[in-house]
Write a structure and sequence with these properties.
Largest sheet: 5 strands, mixed
Number of helices: 17
Strand order of the largest sheet: 2-4-7-6-5
Shape: globular
CATH architecture of the largest domain: 2-Layer Sandwich
Helix content: 40-55%
Bound molecules: adenosine-5'-triphosphate, manganese (II) ion
CATH class of the largest domain: Alpha Beta
């Protein structure tokens, strides 16, 4: 205490849902290294280690300034020995040798490429790697049986691994809104996921649909899907039925990040003119911005210009009574969600899901019609979507 260092130490609460994390990350070099190690752990069936690295990265993302020395980190939560070694390495040498070695490792590279195929999980990728398949060409030559999702994933590999822009998300939104308006007037569509948090790009576009009159949302998903299909917008779709009401373990089951809403995992065929339309719509709505050549450049790549691109789109339907919980649960980030549930369980004896909030002490459900009310029930200060980028 007497020998206080010149640079002030940071202080921060330990749950990510108690913090405000914008996209303005002052410690990207550190968090990139930690995120890469988290990803590697997740690809290696070491989820505990993965979460530890994600939590450490999230703490650094929430800091108001770049970290310049280890002494600033004294007292910060969630920084375990391993994470601190990585941070020290980056601060002293400009890069983490462990992260660099991981990036170069054949196993990591193969897992990244193979799980980069839509429909391929870690288990499948590992099986293939054990059989010597480490790349896309080998996979194609091997004539492995692929399921429908994997075949679509392989066919659209390049498109699906190219980030989706906000303009493209806006174009998809226009299509989804048209579909919803056509099949159920009065129904509402909300952009969720990373784009709701203000991200500039995403790996997919996520939407939540509901109707202001409880029950009217029933049957909405199949209608939307068949409208989209009939208009030629779907390259792939898999719809999962709502299993919430049927499940006997009910909403009081232990919190899990799988919910039971009716949902659709899809691949959209987004026409070029719709993409431009999205861009124009956005230009009109916001300030004019410098033109980006990225879309034009990507169009030239590959076998030649094709007048559309494939985009991953997730659709979810919730009844209005659960809408606030669904909205909160599907806005992310994944770590923010995980931390909200951990806070609810460990600090408040409550179970939070994308359907409901259950108070274990009062043995009752707590109603909410807005995200603000859910934060209030949880005894947390409200954190807007743009500050949930943990
Ligand atoms: P990205 O730009 O990579 O798409 P994202 O934050 O939108 O980032 P998603 O994987 O699309 O990431 O997930 C969006 C949100 O939906 C996350 O908060 C996640 O917790 C939630 N989510 C995704 N899949 C499920 C699922 N099967 N069940 C419940 N919630 C899910
Ligand atoms: Mn998303
Ligand atoms: Mn998604």
């Amino acid at each position: 205490q007497m020998n206080e260092v010149e640079v002030e130490a940071f202080s921060t609460p330990s749950y990510a849902c108690q913090r405000r994390t914008t996209l303005d990350n002052h410690n990207a070099v550190l968090t990139d290294a930690l995120s890469l190690l988290a990803e590697n752990a997740e690809l290696s069936d070491e989820d505990g280690r993965g979460v530890a690295f994600r939590r450490a990265a999230a703490v650094l993302k929430s800091l108001p300034e770049p970290v310049t020395g280890l002494t600033q980190l004294r007292g910060l939560p969630c920084l375990g020995g391993h994470s601190l070694r990585v941070i020290k390495d980056v601060l002293e040498n400009g890069a983490s040798s462990e992260a660099e070695a991981t990036k170069q490792s054949e196993r990591f590279k193969a897992l990244k490429v193979l799980t980069g195929i839509f429909g391929v999980g870690v288990k499948t990728a590992e099986r293939w790697i054990r059989d010597g398949i480490v790349g896309l060409q080998q996979l194609q030559l091997s004539e492995r049986p692929l399921n429908r999702a994997q075949r679509a994933g392989l066919r659209h590999y390049e498109d699906l691994n190219r980030p989706v822009t906000r303009a493209e998300a806006a174009a998809v939104a226009a299509v989804v809104e048209e579909a919803v308006a056509a099949v159920l007037p009065g129904a509402r569509t909300t952009l969720i996921g990373g784009f709701r948090r203000g991200k500039l790009t995403g790996h997919d576009v996520d939407f939540l649909m509901t109707h202001p009159e409880e029950g009217r949302e029933a049957g909405l998903m199949p209608k939307v899907v068949s409208w989209l299909d009939s208009q030629g917008f779907l390259l792939y779709q898999k719809t999962t039925r709502n299993s919430y009401l049927e499940a006997k373990d009910g909403p009081a089951r232990p919190p899990s990040n799988m919910d039971r809403f009716e949902r659709c995992y899809s691949i959209f065929k987004l026409p070029e003119e719709a993409r431009r339309g999205g861009e124009e719509a956005r230009r009109g709505a916001e300030e004019a911005e410098p033109c980006s050549g990225a879309a034009a450049a990507s169009q030239v790549k590959g076998e030649g210009p094709k007048p559309w691109r494939a985009v991953r789109v997730d659709l979810v339907v919730s009844p209005i009574s659960q809408f606030a919980f669904a909205l909160l649960g599907w806005t992310g980030s994944k770590l923010f969600e995980r931390e909200l549930r951990r806070w609810a369980g460990h600090e408040k004896a409550m179970s939070l899901s994308s359907h409901a909030l259950y108070d274990n002490k009062q043995s009752r459900y707590l109603r909410a019609s807005s995200e603000e009310e859910i934060f209030a029930h949880l005894g947390l200060e409200y954190v807007p979507p743009s500050e949930r980028n943990a």
